[in-house]
Amino acid sequence: MEQLVSMGFSSDLAAEALTATGGDSIQKATDWILSQRSSPQTTTAKSQPKLDRFLRPNSNPTPAVNDESGKRPNSKTLMPFMGDDSNKRHKLSASSHRQHHQPLSERMRPRTLDDVVGQDHLLSPTSLIRAAVESNRLPSIVFWGPPGTGKTSIAKSLINSSKDPSLYRFVSLSAVTSGVKDVRDAVESAKRLNLEGKKRTVLFMDEVHRFNKSQQDSFLPVIEDGSILFIGATTENPSFHLITPLLSRCRILTLNPLKPNHVETLLRRAVDDCERGLSNSVEVDDSVIEFLANNCDGDARVALNALEISATMATARAGSGAVVSVDDAKEALQCKHLAYDKAGEQHYNLISALHKSMRGGDANAAIYWLARMLEAGEEPLYIARRLIRFASEDIGLADPSALTQAVACYQASHFLGMPECNVILAQCTAYLALAPKSVAVYRAIGAAQKVVKDSVGQNEGVPLHLRNAPTKLMKDLGYGKEYIYPPDDPSSAAAQTYLPPSLLHYKFLEWPRGVSGDLQDQEHGL
Asked: Would the pLDDT of 196 be above 50?
């Protein structure tokens, strides 16, 4: 707003322009003011002393004196683009210029809900979204899903697909570049429109998980009193990254990764659309579309942008009429795109899949998930630490050497690093997956800790016969009295108790003692 005010516009007009254009571009706001100039509400924009300096930085300076004819230049001489016809040409030129520089993924963004593909579970005729659009009663929503699956597209399409789009004003912000002040400005503008009975404001906050707790708190009162309709988009699990009060005020809708056939549909649209898609000067083989659809990991943005780069490369090589090849697509994509984040949802999903595959004894699946993590750039020592935990938690006494194997795997991975340690990690993963399993120790320590935490009052002291007596005073107090030293009397050692009196009936470790391996296997269902 400060830039518009410094250009000579009034603060009210600047606020109205930012509100009408979404508040994300000074150029858009300026174009809006100029296009509205002829209406009575914007007559204040007719004379703006600083406008020429900001919008035409390369133009000749305004003459300070009369011209050769002795007449002072009129407003059209000073600012010819503000005339009716030239203003239209300026607007069209600016719009064409911006579209030319937009990525293909942005140009091909769906305009209505019918254009969205791959999210049929959210957009079916009986879905919540369709019902809300049909009734013009949109709820506050948070879209959660991987990148490039349509979160922003669905949010923007909601308004265009409603029965009366004029009832809504769409304001788009991003938590990456916006703060509480931007939210406050949008809310104040929304409240003014509500009081005037004009439009309801839909505030779209992209990457909402990047807001901290206090910033997310700023949404609560305005969602609660209906000042705005809130739509958020996040790639992170809302349970971990959004505050509970915000979740209670919004419906959480989950988007799925796009399948290859969905991505193919979007790519073919880009090829066939002469207005927003690729230039007619290039041809795209079906093999290129199939390659990109199968190697973008369900991310439409990655596929579309790679298609555009491929077309640019082909044109630079062969000129007009060039044919985009699979080699161009491979060069544009560089490598298969893998959806992964070292501290987010995919990180925990994949390590869980690795753990559960080993627990189920499926070495093939375990090695696959291991490869997925390594190829995505996961830290190998993190995986090795998880293998050490698994060796004790899920194998334990069934094969005590598993822990030794896992620790050796960690040390060897530390010595070698990637990529050489991949075989070491795979060997240990296969060993643990094929090893006999026992959770007896895992359950034993869990049960013992529960007893310790749930004990009423203080935990009992150590029985006197189990205490050490290094001094005469301690011996006189009975420390160590009647303790049976098992090496001296093995037969009577079993009669000696080792638990506090109140816990003598507890059995934490369910493991047979002094029996054959066959009985141990039977104990664990092997």
From this structure: yes
Task: Enumerate the H helices of 102-171 as residue ranges.
Answer: 104-107, 120-123, 128-135, 151-161
The CATH number of the domain covering residues in 260-333: 1.10.8.60
Q: Distance (Å, rounded) from C-alpha 480 to C-alpha 459? A: 20
CATH number of 345-434: 1.20.272.10
Residue 240: Cβ-neighbour burial (10 angstroms; 0-12, 13-18, 19+): exposed
pLDDT in tens, 228-263: 899 999 988 898 889 999 999 999 999 998 999 999
pTM above 0.70, yes or no: no
Q: Which of 326, 143, 345 is nearest to 232 (CA)?
A: 143
In this structure, the chain runs to a length of 526
- What lies within 8 Å, CB to CB, of 396 at 6+ separation is 438, 439, 440, 441, 442
* Domain boundaries for CATH 1.20.272.10 within the chain: 345-434
Q: 128, 127, 117, 186: which is closest to 153 by C-alpha? A: 117
Extract the tokens encoding 500. Answer: 């506090």
Whether pLDDT at 340 is above 60: no
Q: Does the domain spanning 119-254 belong to CATH 3.40.50.300?
A: yes
